[in-house]
Amino acid sequence: MATPPSLRIDNLMAALDAAEIGQQPGEVHGALVGLICGGVEQSKKAWNSAFLELMNDGQPLPDALQQLIDELYQDTLTRLSDADFGFTPMLPEEEEPLAKRVEALSLWVQSFLTGIAMVQPKLNKASADVQEVIKDLAEIALVEFDVADDDESESAYMELMEFSKMAALLCYSEFGPEPSEQEASVIH
Question: What cellular component GO annotations does this protein have (predicted)?
């Protein structure tokens, strides 16, 4: 599934800068994914108020940015529920320096954990697998940004990114809507 041009990382960064929101695109995406994977109610009012609480102290966003966030939410929800696993964290492209990508992954994971904790107060009662991945994600959030730009570090980054992706999908399968609920919300 191709990413819509409007949801490119540089477009989201420009919209965040224009609105003077001090967040990176990865943080915004991580928070949205955390909310969705935590089982936030799918109505716009529910997920958007939780999102605004995390990202902008509960204050509304400028219309252009809100429209982009709405589109990002729908795209992310579609990707998370896609049987072909079209979901990946929104992170800088591989042309960017490794240190920048590692920092972005750390911020994405931090925001994911904050988002999921906000809507899922029973994380300590989750399955053992989910509890373990949450613990592992907390370690990834603390990863060092000062990394060597070599094949070994690149490989380690790719493993952490893939783990983060699979951890989000595991959380979504545990806390997200039941498949029958999802199908009912899809317009045919």
Answer: cytosol
Q: What single DSSP character describes residue 141?
A: T
Which residue is listed with tokens 């988002």?
115
Model pLDDT for residues 156-182, shown as the tens digit of each residue: 999 999 999 999 999 999 998 776 544
| Domain-embedded: residue 45 | yes
Nearest-Å Rg of the Cα atoms of the chain is 16
pLDDT of 58-75, one tens digit each? 999 999 999 999 999 999
Distance of CA 7 to the CA centre of its chain: 13
User: Can you give the CATH number for the domain in which 83 is found?
Assistant: 1.20.120.740
Contact 111, 168 (CB under 8 A): no
Domain range for residue 34?
Answer: 9-175
Q: Distance of CA 94 to CAs 22, 32, 74, 85, 161, Å?
A: 24, 23, 25, 20, 12
C-alpha 35/C-alpha 90 separation (Å) is 15
| C-alpha distances out from residue 158 to 49, 93, 154, Å | 33, 12, 6
Q: What is the domain count for the chain?
A: 1
φ, ψ of residue 93 to 5 degrees: the values are: -65, 160
Helix, strand, or coil here: 67?
A: helix
Compute the distance between CA of residue 188 and CA of residue 183 in angstroms, rounded to an integer.
9
Residue 4 falls inside a structural domain:
no
